[in-house]
Structures are given as structure tokens and as C-alpha cells.
UniProtKB/TrEMBL annotation:
SUPFAM superfamilies: GroEL apical domain-like, GroEL equatorial domain-like, GroEL-intermediate domain like. NCBIfam families: thermosome_alpha (NF041082), thermosome_arch (TIGR02339), thermosome_beta (NF041083). Belongs to the TCP-1 chaperonin family. Keywords: ATP-binding, Chaperone, Nucleotide-binding. The keyword Amino-acid biosynthesis does not apply. This is Thermosome subunit alpha. Coiled coil: none annotated. It comes from the Archaea. GO terms for molecular function: ATP binding; ATP hydrolysis activity; ATP-dependent protein folding chaperone; unfolded protein binding. The keyword DNA damage does not apply. Pfam families: Cpn60_TCP1.
Length: 545
């Protein structure tokens, strides 16, 4: 970057810095973004393929989940990193639709490229895209179906759709039932759903069908002492946030002991204090004890003698879940403990799951926290099952909160494309072309679904368009026959928020990338961008020259 001054060039950037300006910068950024979309495109839909990602340590991840793929890929190009952000946002907001959001952003940029070739200014394209996105939100609202919390069948279908293509096909029915039941248990009074209250434990061994839902909490620990009871029915549970140990004095104190009797008295006193703590717990009527901190060996002995099932060093998050599940209170002082603070559960027992001993707190009256144990033949199967379950829980949770659904299978996208083209004809000026380009971009979703199912893209798109023109608003792609079918009848439904969030974030990122006309890359440090515009780490030989 140099300016002429009296014949001497003046350099204002450090030597070795790279600057890409104008169309070159746009071209490079759009190519990088399209490459990211291309990387996840084949995973879209129930017939999508999986990716195997191997990191530098040789660890393997096999997944179909857009956001997982992009997080694991070592992406270096700055525009490509923005695409990864879309997937992360989509995952945080709704938990599903990450691949759709990225593919949509890639297609918006691809369509914009054609407009840039026609000398249409990026600002005009951006304005058109924003107008089209706003119009899309309006159109989508008119396509919704409402769902009620008691509508078991629809909620199951939402879980089905979220899990489709995630390798859990074989046991989808059982898993969907679990997801709906789990979410229904943890809904708060105000209708919000925090899926953190659903514990998902993964255990290798058995098959997918051995997975189970526990109406309570499962803690990955075994009882503290072998002479404690292995199971307690009609459990009264004390939850303690203090250590059952003798506290050291705050001040350095020296105690001079002159005779063995004094030492013995000292030890006796310590024992008496620990015994007193245990007696307080017994007196409250508790027969199960969970402690967040440590427990002295002697106290363990007294607790075992009293027949109290005990765990120590229980995680804070688990303590909160136990309180929600059993209706107990977490207490910070042993002296204050009373029977009103105790939680209740029908059964607390230690069980062996695959090779580990775990504590099951179940049969709670109205558990506001539940657990799901996922089983599978290999680590990779269980991990992918966990991702599928995570998506299903989040999406059912969103449906509980918003109570609004739309059809899946590419139906809303085809309808949007149709209605946006009609809207474009009412807009004057060059923005009309940008709105039409946005409408074309929408159709990438049904096209990709068809392609991944091994169907002809053009035939299926023409069939879908004509079904929508005849007024079948919910017509989407039947993956098995390739024919347009009413998706609501097929049971392919998604929460409205999955679609609106994907369109919003894809539009925002596409507009942001389009508005960049200058990339200035410093030489030193990690920002050197791998010889930009030449390449993007981990993209399998994509070449951006």
C-alpha cells in the first residue's frame, strides 16, 4: 500500500503485509464462504452423508451435524470463519438447522456474485437481501401451525425430524419418546425450557435400544462405603453444601499437649464432633446424603453404621439438579437441617452400567430434572447419538416455548421463493434483481435435499414449484419417492424459530461479506491468514486463486 510523494513511494503498511482490494477481495471472500457451504452441503437432510474428521492427535469424530463439522475443521480464512459463526449462533439459539443456515448463506453469496458481474453495487444487493429477509419473516408467520404441550404426536414428529439423518434411525421411536418426556418434565411454570436440567450420560456397551430415561437424576459415582446399603426405597435425601470434616483454625494456633490423656481427649473431642454431625443428619430423618465437599473417614464410618447411603464431592450442577428433581433444599449448615429441607425419591440405588457404578435417584414425584442414559456399540455411535439427542431436546424445547411449527422437507423454502418472486415484481429499481436472487437462493435447500437423496434436482424442483403454484403450501420433498407430498401429513415438522434464525443469520453474514471491498492482512503473528488469498486450512485442496 504505497502513495507517490515527489517520486518516492511511501509505504504505510509493514513489509510483507498483503492487501487484496475491490473485486478480488470480494471474489476471494465469496469463494471461501462457498467452500465452507460446500463442505457441509452433502450432510443436509435425512439422506445426507456423514463426515469423518481426524484431528492432529488422531482422534476421530464421525458426524452429520453441521456445527460439529465446522468446529472440528481447522479453518483459517477469515471469511470462512464468519460462516462457522453462523452455525454456532444457530446451534446456541435453536440447536438444529445449522447445516441449512450455512448452505443458505453460501447460496446467497453465489447468487450475489452473478449480480456483481452485472455491475450491480453491493449496497443495492444488501438492501434487496434485507428487504427479502424481512418479507420472508412475514410470509413464514402465515405458514405456521400451532402446537400445544399436550399434543404428544406432533411433539414426537418434531423430535423425529431433528434426529433424521443423524445415525439414530434404528431406534428413533424410542429416542423421540424419551426426548418429549424429558422436556415435558422440566418445563418451568412460566413455560420456559432449560435443557441443562436434562442430564445426558453416555455409556458405551449394549445397543441403542438399551438407552433409557430416568425420572430423576443419575450421578456418575458409587456409594462411599461398601457397608452402606446398596439401595434405599422411599428415600429422604439431605443435600449438603458443607464438608463433614473438622475445620482447621483460621489463625495459626499452637496447642501444647503435655500428656497422652490430653491427646486422647483431643481426639475424642474430634470424634464426638463428627458423631454429632452425623447424629444431626440421622435426627432429620434422612436416609440418603449427598455432599458437595469432602467427608472425613470417621464420619463415613458413622454414616455407614447409621445405614445412610452417601456420596461425596458431588458436582455443584448435579446438586442443583438433585434439588430440582427431589424437591429438597441445598443446605449450607448441618445444624440447621430439618425434615422440611429433605428431598424425596421412591428409590436411590447403585447400579452397574457397562463397567461403571452409578447412583440412580428415581421415581421422584414431580421431577423438574431428569436424566437420559444413551447406550451404543462404540464410542462414535454413542457420541453421534448424543448429538442427535441434543438436537431433539433443544428443538422440542423451542416448540414448547414458541408453540409455532412449520413444515419441513424444503416446503417453506419453495413457498418463500414463489412469494418473494411475486414481491420482487412490486419493487422498483435494481433491488428487484437482488430480491429475485434471494428467492433463487432459497431453493438451494430443496435442491440439496433432492441431490443428497440421489434424485434429479431439476425434476424435483419443477414438481415442487408446480405443487406450490396450485396452492399446496406445505408440499415438500418425499425422500423415498421424490414426489411432492404434504409434509404435515408425513409428520415432517420443525419449529418456526429454526427457519427464521437460519434466514436471519445467513442474510446478515452474506450482507457483511458482500460489503467488504478491501482485505488487509498483516504479516506477523497468527493473522497471516495462510498466504491469503491462497487457501484455507483443512479444506481439502480448495484453491482460491
Amino acid at each position: 500500500m504505497a502513495g507517490q510523494f515527489g517520486g518516492t513511494p511511501i509505504y504505510i503498511l509493514r513489509e510483507g503485509s498483503q492487501r487484496t482490494a475491490g473485486r478480488d477481495a470480494q471474489r476471494s471472500n465469496i469463494m471461501a464462504a462457498k467452500a465452507v457451504a460446500g463442505a457441509v452441503r452433502t450432510t443436509l437432510g435425512p439422506k445426507g452423508m456423514d463426515k469423518m474428521l481426524v484431528d492432529t492427535m488422531g482422534d476421530v469424530v464421525i458426524t452429520n451435524d453441521g456445527v460439529t463439522i465446522l468446529k472440528e475443521m481447522d479453518i483459517e480464512h477469515p471469511a470462512a470463519k464468519m460462516m462457522v459463526e453462523i452455525a454456532k449462533t444457530q446451534d446456541q439459539e435453536v440447536g438444529d438447522g445449522t447445516t441449512s443456515a450455512v448452505v443458505l448463506a453460501g447460496e446467497l453469496l453465489k447468487q450475489a456474485e452473478g449480480l456483481l458481474e452485472q455491475e450491480i453495487h453491493p449496497t443495492i444487493i444488501a438492501a434487496g437481501y434485507r428487504a427479502a429477509a424481512d418479507k420472508s419473516m412475514e410470509i413464514l408467520k402465515g405458514l405456521t401451525v400451532s402446537v400445544l404441550a399436550k399434543d404428544e404426536d406432533l411433539l414426537m414428529k418434531i423430535a423425529f425430524t431433528a434426529m433424521a439423518g443423524k445415525g439414530s434411525q434404528s431406534a428413533r421411536d424410542e429416542l423421540a419418546v424419551m426426548a418429549v418426556e424429558a422436556v415435558r418434565s422440566v418445563v418451568d411454570e412460566d413455560g420456559t425450557v432449560d435443557t441443562d436440567n436434562i442430564t445426558v450420560e453416555k455409556k458405551v456397551g449394549g445397543g441403542i435400544t438399551d438407552s433409557l430415561l430416568v425420572s430423576g437424576v443419575v450421578i456418575d459415582k458409587d456409594r462411599l462405603h461398601p457397608s452402606m446399603p446398596k439401595s434405599v426405597t422411599d428415600a429422604k435425601i439431605a443435600l449438603l453444601n458443607v464438608a463433614m470434616e473438622i475445620e482447621k483454625t483460621e489463625v495459626d494456633a499452637k496447642i501444647q499437649i503435655t500428656s497422652p490423656d490430653q491427646l486422647q481427649a483431643f481426639l475424642d473431642q474430634e470424634e464426638k464432633m463428627l458423631k454429632g454431625m452425623v447424629d444431626k443428619i440421622v435426627a432429620s430423618g434422612a436416609n440418603v446424603l449427598f455432599v458437595q465437599k469432602g467427608i472425613d473417614d470417621l464420619a463415613q464410618h458413622f454414616l455407614a453404621k447409621a445405614g445412610i447411603y452417601t456420596l461425596r464431592r458431588v458436582k455443584k450442577s448435579d446438586m442443583e439438579k438433585l434439588a430440582r428433581a427431589t424437591g429438597g433444599k441445598v443446605i449450607t449448615s448441618i445444624h440447621e437441617i430439618s425434615k422440611d429441607d429433605l428431598g424425596k425419591a421412591g428409590l436411590v440405588e447403585e447400579r452397574k452400567v457397562s463397567d461403571d457404578k452409578m447412583t440412580f435417584v428415581q421415581q421422584c414425584d414431580n421431577p423438574k430434572s431428569v436424566s437420559i442414559i444413551l447406550r451404543g456399540g462404540t464410542v462414535h455411535v454413542v457420541d453421534e447419538l448424543d448429538r442427535a439427542m441434543e438436537d431433539a431436546l433443544r428443538v422440542v424445547g423451542v416448540a414448547f416455548e414458541d408453540k409455532m411449527l412449520v413444515a419441513g422437507g424444503g416446503a417453506p423454502e419453495v413457498e418463500l421463493a414463489l412469494r418473494l418472486r411475486a414481491y420482487a415484481s412490486t419493487v422498483s429499481g435494481r433491488e428487484q434483481l437482488a430480491i429475485e436472487a434471494f428467492a433463487d437462493a432459497m431453493e438451494v435447500i430443496p435442491k440439496t435435499l433432492a441431490e443428497n437423496a440421489g434424485l434429479d434436482q431439476i425434476d424435483t424442483l419443477v414438481a415442487l414449484r408446480s405443487a406450490h403454484e396450485k396452492g399446496m403450501k406445505g408440499a415438500g420433498l418425499d425422500m423415498d419417492t421424490g414426489k411432492p407430498v404434504e409434509m404435515l401429513k408425513l409428520g415432517v415438522v420443525e419449529p418456526l424459530r429454526v427457519k427464521t434464525q437460519a434466514i436471519k443469520s445467513a442474510t446478515e453474514v452474506a450482507v457483511m461479506i458482500l460489503r467488504i471491498d478491501d482485505v488487509i492482512a498483516s504479516k506477523s503473528g497468527p493473522g497471516a491468514m495462510g498466504g491469503m488469498p491462497g487457501g484455507m486450512g483443512g479444506m481439502g485442496g480448495e484453491d482460491f486463486e
